[in-house]
Design a protein that fits this description.
Shape of chain B: globular
Helix content of chain B: 25-40%
Number of strands of chain A: 35
Radius of gyration of chain A: 25 Å
Number of helices of chain B: 7
Number of domains of chain A: 1
Order of helices and strands of chain B: HEHEEHEEEHEHEEHEHE
Number of strands of chain B: 11
CATH architecture of chain A: Beta Barrel
CATH architecture of chain B: 3-Layer(aba) Sandwich
CATH class of chain A: Mainly Beta
Distance between the termini of chain B: 63 Å
Largest sheet of chain B: 8 strands, mixed
CATH topology of chain B: Rossmann fold
Oligomer: heterodimer
Chain lengths: 655, 173
């Protein structure tokens, strides 16, 4: 690393600590004592404790992104918000945003080892198990109260797919929104978007609705690897367009809650993926909706039953014209299910959660065709039944043991048992030591099991679930009133990893071949000034993720990462919000390595003006540095260039 | 060093100092509230009480203890000089006139309140549903403002008398 970067890191740490250690903040207390009682009751407060309590008390390694951080850092997509977290990094294949975690990101896995939830509703679809991280999720992040990131395997609670992370988006309640908010934004590469939020609480009825939609022309590219007369001389112009629209709503009345969501995204593919042309109608469309109803029957404050039922739908279609032929593919997933959960605080020493869940996937299909021939068209419905239990046992006042077990049985993918153990020692109010152990699994998706294509790919119906076993030591500590630190040391082993290999000379097949071992160290600081709105985060990650057979580092796995962001009030009218990201290079599928990444972002946010309005300006990749991430198997290119400098301006009106 | 790093160093080192619009820390407002609330509460006569000092105990929140200690230096409540002590066990509440409890188990509240009511100790807290469970005065935040709820039944059980002015400005449960 260059010495200047070291110096930068040193001064960042120094500046954070210098203003935080050893302070007892009593700012303004004299004024408060002199106020009248009614004036005192009218004072606004800043709560700094929620974050620390969350991370120190939970029986997991947890990170949070607050609504305030979403607003000031100007996060537009879930992937962008997660990218600032320790251990997490992004790859953009110019169609879907892929999130890597703890050095693990298999090529083109569509995030199917991460579980995404909106208010506890799992958003991963059932055909590929994919989780949306970009505009395909089409969620208005301004309506998110907080994002929780639970690191490590979580199958003992959430079942298949919770291998690397569980990400839960908690939407704002109507009472928190309490009015109407409209945002309009415009930016580089023809980007224009509009977002609306409305929420209200009237007596016992809480209602909220939010929507977002946008269009973008995208960037133009030149791909050296595709530079021939048959592929438009490697020039991709006007192919990176995107259109998206999404709606989320929630309605609650006492203990009853109804929530629903819809998203639709169409995206041009500019990279020639799957041998498609660099001109013409190359695109994918992803539509997704769900509706969920839940009711909580309380027997006592410490004893209740939760009933939940849901219906989900996913629809994908792709168009890949190439070499004079029009290729298409499409998928549909439709599923519904129900869950009953029982929560019981039994005496003073046990908190028990137990439940059963049934899910029926009545449509999980894939079709592939061209102008003349249908190559594949099959539907494979299946079902799953799960039962789980967890007990949080208070051993002594500040020492808890959490033990959990979940059993999942699938009609066509076998069964799995996922245990979890956590020992949490809260040695002070906001500081804890945690020792965590958990197992998780992922059932093979439809594509990995049953897809076959004449002369190129064979199905493997005997494929088994892949598994992960992880251990972690977490030290969450409050360094001072305003500074929180979090250290994680982890180790994991994945086995029966599902990977593509050559079945014979010409045919590929998915098979349980892989075994990977990962270990690493993550250190995160979070700073929040108690009086003004200064905030900062600094996340450092040192990780090594190896192929167990060869001992070589996995592809798309950076060894060291620095993520930082700052919110500074300057004058009483503006905030400056700089961000700096560093990653070491990642190995590509061809065995090459991308260069180190140095990324600077800069934002300027206004305070509220003219009573109702706020404005923000964000420049991503401020110094327009070219950086790359490894490409997947579907690309001829070994690496794909990532976003160049782009500017985005937004105005919000609140009523 | 490249100009870009100089800019970042400047931002890190300088701008952290710039004061923004003051919003009060929750703990600071709570400290001011505690002094103010005592003006509207009449304590039961407890003969064994140390009448020299008005003793405030804080359990489970070292940070609030430090703030309260500084905030109430040289202050008097009920014509008695205030002393703030940090409790290591909530069984020690009986020696105090007022206690602020944090991080206590929901299941322990009943037991704590029984001994507090017996000893004439006013209990304050800031836990979700703690007011319903029996804490005398429980703080909560609504629309970014610190508010409080009073458990009328618990207050009566402790023989405290609370003025109607305070009752009118609180949520009664």
């Amino acid at each position: 690393m260059k010495s200047s970067y070291r110096l930068y890191l040193f001064f960042t740490c120094l500046s954070l600590s210098a203003f935080s250690f050893g302070q007892i903040d009593t700012a303004g207390i004299k004024n408060l004592f002199e106020m009248s009682f009614s004036n005192l009751m009218d004072q606004k407060v800043v709560t700094a404790s929620k974050y620390a309590q969350n991370i120190s008390e939970a029986a997991s390694s947890i990170g949070t992104i607050t609504a305030e951080e979403i607003k000031y850092f100007g996060y537009k997509t879930l992937g962008e918000a997660l990218n600032g977290q320790r251990g997490i990094y992004l790859s953009n294949d110019k169609n879907y945003l892929q999130v890597g975690s703890r050095g693990f990101s298999r090529p083109t896995d569509y995030n199917n080892r991460i579980v995404i939830m909106i208010d506890g509703h799992i958003m991963n679809e059932v055909v590929y198990g994919s989780a949306f991280m970009g505009n395909e999720l089409a969620i208005n992040l301004e309506n998110v109260e907080r994002i929780e990131i639970i690191r490590g395997p979580g199958a003992s609670v959430y079942g298949s797919g919770a291998m690397l992370n569980i990400v839960n988006l908690f939407m704002k309640k109507g009472s928190e929104i309490n009015g109407l908010s409209v945002s309009a934004g415009t930016g580089s590469f023809g980007k224009n978007d509009l977002s609306v939020i409305y929420g209200k609480k009237i007596k016992s009825i809480d209602f909220s609705i939010s929507g977002t939609g946008g269009i973008s022309k995208g960037e133009d590219y030149y791909f050296r690897e595709l530079d021939s007369s048959g592929t438009n001389n490697g020039i991709s112009r006007g192919m990176d367009w995107e259109e998206y629209f999404g709606l989320q709503s929630a309605f609650s009345y006492n203990n009853f809650k109804l929530s629903a969501g819809f998203s639709s995204r169409a995206k041009g593919i500019p990279t020639g993926a799957f041998n498609a042309d660099l001109t013409g109608d190359v695109k994918t469309i992803d539509d997704r909706y769900f509706v969920e109803a839940g009711y909580r029957k309380e027997f006592k404050r410490s004893n209740y039953l939760l009933f939940r039922s849901y219906y989900d739908d996913y629809c994908y279609s792709g168009s890949y014209p190439g070499g004079g032929l029009n290729y298409f593919d499409a998928s549909k997933g439709r599923w519904g299910g129900g869950e009953i959960q029982y929560y019981l605080e039994a005496g003073e020493k046990n908190v028990i959660t137990a439940g059963i869940e049934y899910k029926y996937i009545f449509r999980s299909d894939y079709k592939e065709w061209d102008d003349d021939t249908t190559y594949f068209d099959k539907n494979f419905p299946f079902s799953s039944f799960s039962v789980y239990a967890q007990d949080q046992i208070k051993i002594v006042r500040n020492l808890h043991l959490t033990a959990g077990l979940r059993y999942d049985r699938y009609s066509i993918f076998g069964q799995a048992l996922s245990p979890r153990l956590a020992l949490v020692y809260n040695y002070s109010l906001n500081s804890s030591l945690k020792l965590l152990y958990s197992d998780a699994f992922r059932i093979p998706n439809f594509y990995e099991s049953f897809y076959e294509s004449y002369n190129s790919h064979v199905a493997n119906p005997d494929i088994q679930s892949e598994k992960i076993s992880a251990q972690e030591l977490v030290w969450s500590h409050k360094l001072s009133k305003s500074l929180y630190g979090n250290l994680s040391i982890y180790h994991f082993l994945t086995f029966d990893l599902i990977d593509q290999h050559l079945h014979d000379e010409n045919l590929t097949e998915f098979h349980n071949i892989g075994k990977a071992i990962g270990y690493g160290l993550e250190y995160g600081f979070k700073y929040k000034h108690p009086d003004n709105n200064s905030q900062a985060f600094l996340n450092l990650t040192l990780q090594s993720t190896l192929d167990k057979h060869t001992g070589e580092t996995l592809s798309n796995s950076p060894a060291f990462m620095v993520k930082s962001g700052f919110i500074f009030p300057v004058t009483k009218y503006f905030y400056i919000v700089p961000g700096f990201f560093f990653e070491t290079g990642r190995k590509t599928l061809a065995g090459n390595k991308t260069g180190n990444l140095y990324l600077f972002n800069l934002g300027i946010n206004s305070v509220r003006f003219l009573k109702h309005f706020e404005a923000s300006l964000k420049v991503r990749n401020l110094f327009n540095r070219a950086y790359y991430s490894p490409a997947g198997y579907e690309h001829v290119q070994d690496v794909l260039i990532q976003d160049s400098r782009n500017i985005y301006f937004k105005v919000t009106a609140n009523f | 060093m490249a100009p870009v790093f100089k800019i970042f160093l400047f931002i890190n080192l300088i701008i952290f100092n710039i004061e923004g619009k003051a919003q009060y820390n929750e703990n600071v407002i709570r400290a001011a509230y505690i002094e103010r609330l005592t003006r509207f509460v009449e304590w039961p006569q407890i003969t064994s009480r140390d009448t020299g000092y008005f003793k405030i105990g804080v359990y489970g929140d070292a940070e609030f203890y430090n703030i309260l200690k500084i905030a109430l230096i040289d202050k008097s409540i009920k014509s008695r000089k205030v002393t703030v002590i940090e409790l290591s066990d909530y069984k020690e509440i009986e020696t105090c006139d007022l206690c602020y409890l944090s991080g206590i188990s929901y299941n322990d509240i009943e037991k704590i309140m029984a001994s507090a009511n017996k000893a004439g100790v006013l209990i304050l807290s800031a836990g979700k549903d703690y007011g319903t469970k029996g804490i005398h005065i429980n703080f909560y935040i609504e629309e970014d403002k610190l508010k409080f709820e009073i458990n009328r039944k618990a207050v009566s059980a402790g023989n405290f008398k609370i003025s109607s002015l305070l009752m009118n400005n609180s949520k009664i449960i």
